[in-house]
Amino acid sequence: MASTISAGTTSGTAIAIAGDTTGNLAFQTSAGTYTQTMPNATGTVMVSGNMPAFSVNRNGTNQTITVSTFTKVQFTTEDFDTNNCFDNATNYRFTPTVAGYYQINGAVNSEPSTSPSRCLAAIYKNGTEYKRGSDIAISAAGAYISVVSSLLYFNGTTDYIELYAYISGVTAVVGGSSVLTYLNGSMVRAA
Prior knowledge:
The protein is built from no helices and 18 strands. It is mostly beta strands. Strands 8-5-18-11-15 form a 5-stranded antiparallel β-sheet, with no helix packed on it. Strands 7, 12, 13, 14 and 16 form a 5-stranded antiparallel β-sheet that branches. A 4-stranded antiparallel β-sheet has the order 1-2-3-4, with no helix packed on it.
């Protein structure tokens, strides 16, 4: 079964696109005919407008957390949120509305004035620890960064992720630097 779509004109030249069931597309113009073979596959074609992506930070504000306890980092500032899937006011979580596989990256910076002895970041999916990042044992005062990264599947309705921090020592403070404490992600493949 072949079909033809008229795509209008370009500089007075008519363009027609014809396709068949084998995956061949023929582009015809007055200058000639060009054929493009598309792979024979099933699935959803994604376009940039429906592939959620986000990046959030703490906008320079430190967050005091409970010592030696995994605590959710409250990301209040969005660098971008293409599909309005990140809640930066109440739950501080990413809940994508399109099912698929997402690359998620996060980092936690321990504030140097708190003299921490351990710092790590963890991705929590649906309220449960999913992946743990670098676990840094600290022997001297200073700022330390733990990084976590993972590929996750989201169902497009109820699945969500949050970033948690674990800092031990006298006090536990997540640094607010947007360069050092952040969470971001984007869809890489449809379900």
